[in-house]
């Protein structure tokens, strides 16, 4: 048996713009995704001596359906693509076995910390972790471009997690530019007891004209952000009105509590606060850990937010 243990970090969208619909029907996005230290853990055991098979167990959160988990989809896409590549290229190690679909038994134990329907990419991060482990185990059969293509076919956020850190992600999510890291920024994240459906959120966006998008201003901002030395928080917050999330409006319309959380976080002294992804989690950036920790006490003592998940985190 070969055993791998890997962490799957969450992400936040520092801002997120929807630019329209692509010919393939997916939405074209423009967003800075930022990896944070909140993480799931996966133990992946691979048994070469056992016949092909798969098992996944989820530990931690009881709102995860193992049958619908993206880890399974990632495994299926990887092995299917490897079978096709091995059939066409016999020079791949063990190509004869893989071409006949004779893969080892794979077992995944997933310990969940990242909440679902939060906009924090927990399922996508787990899926990327599976792809990275399988890529290593099978001797790196895919190029970077091929693995990226595999990832986006599992989920729009999955390619980002192959890179991590701070990235500008465009189109469906497969066009990625690695930026200078905005690491070490203290965060407070609040996840209310409601979840936002991503498809429903995009349908609401499609029913209205898209907000204006000034490409030149964004390019100038990304360039300036990529050259910041010193105060990273100040450099980011300087983006001003560019720092918005187009998916926040429909999410707030359905769940006003999201805006109440954001307003309360700003009232605690946060330098910036925004909903991440399609929600429902809201994050806030603080100047230092002391300010963040004081804010955490205030938010946890707010009776209106009783029972909500509150995470103290940091960008990585």
Per DSSP E runs of 2 or more residues, the count of β-strands stands at: 10
Fraction of residues in helix: 25-40%
Instruction: Please state roughly what percent of the residues sit in beta strands, choosing from under 5%, 5-15%, 15-25%, 25-35%, 35-45% or over 45%.
Output: 25-35%
The coarse silhouette is: globular
**What is the terminal-to-terminal distance?**
32 Å
Classify the oligomer.
single chain
- The averaged pLDDT comes out at 94
Which runs of at least 5 residues are low in confidence (pLDDT < 50)?
A: none
Please give the radius of gyration in angstroms: 20 Å
Walk me through what this model shows.
The chain is α+β, with helices and mostly antiparallel strands and 316 residues long. The chain has helices at 70-88, 95-99, 122-137, 144-154, 158-163, 198-206, 215-225, 232-237, 248-254, 257-267, 289-300; strands at residues 2-21, 27-47, 53-59, 105-111, 166-171, 175-178, 186-191, 272-275, 282-285, 309-314. The strands form two sheets. Strands 1, 2, 3, 4, 5 and 6 form a six-stranded mixed β-sheet that branches. It has a four-stranded antiparallel β-sheet with strand order 8-9-7-10, covered by helices on one side. Helix 1 runs parallel beside helix 3 (122-137) and helix 1 (70-88) packs across helix 4 (144-154). It is globular. The protein starts with a strand and ends with a strand. The mean pLDDT is 94.
Give a short summary of the structure.
The protein is an alpha+beta fold and 316 residues long.
Q: What are the SSEs and their pairings?
A:
Blueprint: E1 2-21, E2 27-47, E3 53-59, H1 70-88, H2 95-99, E4 105-111, H3 122-137, H4 144-154, H5 158-163, E5 166-171, E6 175-178, E7 186-191, H6 198-206, H7 215-225, H8 232-237, H9 248-254, H10 257-267, E8 272-275, E9 282-285, H11 289-300, E10 309-314
């Amino acid at each position: 048996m070969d055993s791998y243990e890997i962490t799957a970090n969450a992400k936040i969208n520092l801002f997120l713009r929807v630019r329209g619909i692509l010919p393939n029907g997916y939405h074209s996005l423009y967003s800075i995704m930022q990896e944070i230290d909140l993480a799931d853990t996966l133990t992946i055991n691979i048994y070469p001596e056992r016949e092909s098979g798969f098992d996944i167990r989820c530990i931690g959160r009881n709102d995860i359906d193992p049958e619908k988990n993206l880890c399974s989809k990632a495994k299926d896409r990887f092995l299917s693509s490897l079978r096709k590549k091995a059939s066409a290229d016999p020079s791949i190690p063990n190509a004869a076995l893989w071409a006949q679909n004779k893969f080892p038994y794979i077992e995944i134990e997933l310990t969940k910390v990242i909440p679902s329907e939060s906009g924090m990419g927990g399922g996508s991060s787990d899926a990327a972790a599976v792809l990275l482990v399988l890529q290593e185990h099978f001797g790196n059969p895919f190029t970077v471009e091929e693995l990226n293509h595999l990832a986006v076919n599992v989920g729009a956020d999955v390619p980002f997690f192959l890179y991590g850190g701070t990235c500008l992600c465009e189109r469906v999510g497969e066009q990625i530019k690695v930026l200078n890291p905005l690491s070490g920024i203290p965060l407070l994240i609040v996840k209310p007891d409601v979840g936002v459906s991503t498809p429903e959120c995009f349908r609401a966006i499609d029913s209205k004209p898209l907000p204006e998008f000034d490409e030149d201003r964004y390019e100038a901002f990304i360039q300036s952000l990529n050259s910041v030395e010193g105060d990273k928080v100040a450099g980011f917050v300087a983006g001003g009105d560019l720092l918005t999330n187009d998916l926040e409006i429909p999410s707030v319309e359905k769940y006003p509590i999201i805006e109440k959380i954001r307003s309360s976080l700003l009232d605690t002294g946060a330098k910036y606060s925004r909903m991440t992804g399609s929600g429902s989690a809201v994050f806030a950036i603080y100047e230092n850990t002391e300010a963040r920790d004081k804010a955490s006490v205030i938010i946890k003592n707010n009776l209106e937010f009783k029972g909500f998940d509150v995470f103290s985190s940091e960008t990585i």
